[in-house]
Recover the amino acids of this structure.
């Protein structure tokens, strides 16, 4: 068997082969079986200190076979798309989830898919053109300020071709592009060194730079690093916190979003379990997950189970309305699947995950929100954090933050961490700006060891009180 025969693209696997594999997967019983074929091309370029440190291209392909029997799941995968290897994977999954119940599979038929993004191809830029793009970013960052000491630029592109078939008769396929640039800058002034970062992208190709050139992200990263050179230590203690629009929605994603995923709620391990129809947030707070926004990083034509994502209202005017669901958990909870079944690749089992998650806009002027705070913190950019899904407790690092003094944004601060409880924070949102903004397109969500691209968003909001970790003054 040649490498070319083993590494077929998903479209090369015939419908008849798929139906035979599904029959094998259900040969020992089960409620449902599906096949996930993937052909994934990636390319990346990294420049550091004006030197191309790495340039890589890669291809992965394979098949994941799942059999579901009640709450039990059998899963097996292979990177060999020859018939014997695919059949072994199907038989292995069948063994794991064997059951006396047998649900006969239906004949698969292609399903029409609405397009939320185009079918670009990888390699639209030559290596010379890619190097020119990262050089432009490096140059713009250094020209921003003489104190810029170090610049790292990463340009990444991928194209994923997936084909999904299941025992319910679904046959769906998609070609999923993803393009991104990330710039990290370190500025130095004597012994003081600060870092700034910026980036963007989406389900597009190099045309992404038509509206946001590399220089845009380089200058933003440099601006942040240089601004923080004069920062003082953040104060500590409970205080009002204003979250800026856009990327600060990552706090919403982590502290609240994961708690609204179906698996945690089915198992009763989320702070939101069993609370549908109850008030969980302040009036005016509406949170949605929307995988249908054109060209967004977290958007999908189909999820990784072949379902079509749409706009799922999670919290409406402060009332919990629903959860993000995949097929398994929605079935066990007697709820509708919402198109949130996602997986990192063919070697990973699908689970309910976010796509683009954000709070809808309110009516307040952002400037009025800040003016209403005598003393507090304005958080503009966040880094990493930790969240306990069961309790909702979180700790987040604010990588760009400012004091609010007498209703005005004051000096920058460093070392600020936000410590709180996600569900509790939702009840302390007292003002919501009209300036909803989605992030630039660099979000990556991690769950159970799997990483998938996501989007976040937020208008300017005021949280009446969050504990800020810093230097007590």
């Amino acid at each position: 068997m040649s490498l070319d025969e083993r590494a077929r693209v998903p479209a090369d696997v015939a419908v008849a082969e798929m139906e035979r594999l599904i029959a094998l997967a259900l040969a020992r019983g089960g409620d449902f079986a599906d096949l996930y074929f993937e052909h994934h091309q990636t390319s990346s370029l990294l420049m550091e200190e004006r030197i191309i440190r790495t340039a890589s291209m890669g291809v992965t392909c394979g098949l994941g076979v799942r059999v579901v029997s009640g709450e039990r799941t059998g899963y097996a995968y292979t990177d060999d798309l020859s018939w014997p290897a695919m059949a072994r994977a199907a038989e292995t999954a069948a063994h794991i989830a064997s059951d006396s119940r047998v649900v006969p599979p239906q004949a698969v038929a292609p399903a029409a898919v609405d397009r939320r993004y185009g079918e670009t191809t990888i390699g639209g830029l030559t290596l010379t053109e890619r190097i020119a793009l990262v050089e432009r970013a490096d140059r713009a960052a250094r020209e921003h300020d003489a104190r810029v000491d170090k610049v790292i630029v990463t340009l990444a592109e991928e194209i994923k071709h997936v084909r999904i078939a299941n025992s319910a008769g679904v046959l769906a396929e998609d070609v999923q592009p993803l393009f991104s640039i990330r710039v990290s800058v370190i500025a130095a002034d004597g012994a003081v060194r600060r870092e700034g970062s910026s980036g963007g992208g989406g389900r597009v190709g190099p045309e992404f730079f038509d509206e946001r050139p590399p220089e845009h992200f380089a200058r933003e990263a440099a601006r942040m690093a240089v601004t923080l050179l004069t920062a003082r230590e953040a104060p500590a203690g409970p205080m009002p916190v204003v979250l800026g629009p856009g990327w600060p929605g990552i706090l919403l994603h982590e502290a609240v979003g994961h708690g609204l995923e179906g698996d945690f709620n089915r198992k009763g391990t989320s702070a939101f379990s069993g609370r549908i129809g109850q008030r969980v947030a302040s009036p005016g707070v509406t949170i949605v997950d929307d995988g249908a926004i054109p060209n967004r990083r977290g958007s999908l034509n189909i999820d990784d189970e072949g379902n079509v994502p749409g706009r799922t209202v999670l919290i409406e005017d402060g009332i919990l309305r629903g959860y993000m669901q995949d097929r398994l958990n929605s079935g066990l909870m007697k709820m509708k699947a919402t198109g949130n079944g996602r997986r990192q690749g063919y070697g990973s089992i699908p689970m309910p995950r976010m796509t683009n998650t954000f709070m809808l806009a309110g009516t307040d002027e952002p400037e009025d929100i800040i003016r209403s705070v005598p003393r507090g913190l304005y958080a503009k950019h966040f880094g990493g954090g930790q969240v306990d899904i069961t309790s909702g407790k979180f700790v987040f690092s604010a990588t760009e933050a400012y004091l609010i003094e007498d209703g005005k944004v004051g000096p920058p601060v460093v070392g600020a961490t936000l410590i709180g409880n996600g569900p509790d924070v939702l009840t302390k949102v007292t003002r919501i700006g009209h300036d909803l903004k989605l992030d630039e397109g660099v979000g990556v969500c991690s769950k159970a060891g799997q990483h998938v691209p996501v989007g976040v968003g937020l208008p300017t909001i005021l949280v009446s009180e969050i504990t800020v970790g810093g230097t007590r003054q």
Remarks:
- Residues 1-6 have pLDDT under 50 and may be disordered.
